[in-house]
Amino acid sequence: MEKTAAVHNIEPVYDKNSRILILGSFPSVRSREERFFYAFPQNRFWRVLSRIYGEDVPLTVPQKKAFLLKNRTAVWDVVKSCDIIGSDDTSISDVVPNDIGMILSAADIRTIYTNGTKAYNMYNKYIKPITGREAVKLPSTSPANAAYSLDRLCESWKIITE
């Protein structure tokens, strides 16, 4: 498989009541096809959030948006466009970052979290110099992060509810 130029095609989810921002790196092929975050069924993002918020796992895009907004959680990604092989974060190059300023100006975001090391490193390289805001690195919910069980992910991610 070769690298292809890919463009982020999912609008950020946030409103004026959002208090935390979770940034992934770049949407998977499946998420870009379905035009919503964490669409790959093996990604544990929705299971982790539903468990730590004590709610049922949202299934449809409207349910997922409502779930995030109800829990004052904004979601987007660090990368606007890049060259990538499939959904492999480690292959990302030629990055153009998203401008998270519109979220930060619209909502009182108290903490920025990243979903995984790649998102954290790219945040620090491309976005932190602009915003001056620190981010908290959380372990990736990707199935590629096999070192973390669902229980261990939930234990790490529950910080977002504090």
Task: Give the tags.
single chain; 162 residues; alpha/beta; Uracil-DNA Glycosylase, subunit E; 33% helix
Describe the structure.
A 4-stranded parallel beta sheet has the order 3-2-6-7. A 3-stranded antiparallel beta sheet has the order 1-4-5. It is built from 6 helices and 7 strands. The chain is 33% helix and 25% strand.
Write the SSE topology.
Elements: E1 4-7, E2 20-24, H1 29-34, H2 45-53, H3 61-70, E3 73-77, E4 79-85, E5 88-97, H4 101-106, E6 111-115, H5 117-131, E7 135-138, H6 150-157
Parallel strand pairs: 2-3, 2-6, 6-7
Antiparallel strand pairs: 1-4, 4-5
Helix pairs in contact: 2-6
Quick structural summary:
It is built from 6 helices and 7 strands. It has 162 residues and is of the alpha/beta class. The longest helix has 15 residues.
What's the N-to-C terminus distance? Answer: 42 Å
Order the strands across the largest sheet as they lie in space. Answer: 3-2-6-7
- What's the structural domain tally? 1
Mean pLDDT: 96
Q: Runs with pLDDT <50, length 5+?
A: none
Given helix and strand content, the structural type is: alpha/beta
Principal-axis shape: globular
Write down the CATH topology. Uracil-DNA Glycosylase, subunit E
Number of β-strand runs: 7
User: So how many helices?
Assistant: 6
Helix content: 25-40%
The largest sheet, given as strand count, sense and whether it forms a barrel, is: 4 strands, parallel
What's the CATH H-level homologous superfamily? Uracil-DNA glycosylase-like domain
- CATH top level assignment: Alpha Beta
Please write the string of helix (H) and strand (E) elements. EEHHHEEEHEHEH
Alpha-carbon Rg, integer: 15 Å
Portion of residues in beta strands equals: 15-25%
> Under the CATH scheme, which architecture would be assigned?
3-Layer(aba) Sandwich
